Amino acid sequence: MKTLIAKFALAAAVIGGGLQAASAETANIWVRADGSNFMPRIVDAFNKAHKDQIKLDIIPNAEIIPKYGAAAAGGTAPDALSLDLIYTPSFSAAGQLEDITDWAKSLPYFSSLSPAHVKTGTYKGRIYGLPFSADSSVLIWNKKLFKQAGLDPEKGPANWAEIEADAEKVNALGGDIKGFYFSGNCGGCNIFTFTPLIWASGGDILSEDGSKATLDSPQLRGAIDLYRSMVKKGLVPEGAQTDTGANFFAAFAGGKIGISPSGAFAIGALNTQYPDVDYGITFLPGKDGGWSSFAGGDNFVVTKGTKKIAVVKEFLDFAYSLEGQTILAKYGSLPVRGDIAKDALKDLDPRYQVAAEAMAKGKTPYTV
Q1: Could you tell me which of 192, 217, 222 has the C-alpha nearest to residue 295?
Q2: What's the number of domains the chain is made of?
Q3: pLDDT in tens, 25-82
Q4: Structural domain of residue 265, as residue ranges?
Q5: How confident is the model at residue 210 (pLDDT cuts 50, 70, 90)?
Q6: What span, in angstroms and rounded, lies between the C-alpha atoms of 166 and 273?
């Protein structure tokens, strides 16, 4: 009997220990304010469906990079972070991120993840970041103004000559209507929307390894000449040249601009906030055709040494599911899984499909 009791006690201890090991854990994740619409929703959906939990902190855009750098150096960083993808190589090189190569490549849908995100998440052949949220640069035009100017309202410009010609015709409507808009003093806006004009024409702004600038190229000079010509012709509002980004979206949303480079985010913003603006969306074209896009958004990175990596992986698996990708798409991010992007977007504005295609083939400069 004593032996039986002892065995029972041992079994109970083993079972109890197993239950303790399987108790719920909570991982802390940071996201920049740009993700404040979709991130709380996907975290909430995950927390409702899983034993393990996510604690989310939303950090102001201007603070998240220095704050994470300091926290990582001081040992107080979150378990994971939704990080502007362009910063992934720098944090990888600093040794502050967990190497997730083996796990990433084991994902059955790894090959369908946004290639631009995966590229920026890779450092010296190892993967430190995977795609999480996405935006793509596109060209939008005002269909009402196109029709008034005698243009086909269903056809956006397909090359540089058409951009300028269409802008001239819209501009000729007069009054406070202008043909084209760009934020001349907004570096981030312009690298997002101007660089694709160069890429689509066969040029680049950086060498393949990101170590050298390639700014003296016919493609870059040509793109600058295009903008300069439209400014000289008065097709662009005077205030555009000094705009630091305050009117990057607002100018077109006012209904007085014919054509403007923008981002996929404009689709949701126009639909919900400016439903009276009838607009089309197309790709940013090259000089003689073709197109390109800047793939923006965030990579999901894991802080080196975290003990919550299993929870973090569980959350990312959920984000990559059709349910997760649909939540992201509904609340402001393009899907980052190309194989299910159409399904995630099927109940949304069909113009998102153009933006998703731009995202799938988009590029991102790689700098360390």
Answers
A1: 192
A2: 2
A3: 999 999 999 899 899 999 999 999 999 999 999 999 889 999 999 999 999 999 999 9
A4: 136-294
A5: low
A6: 26
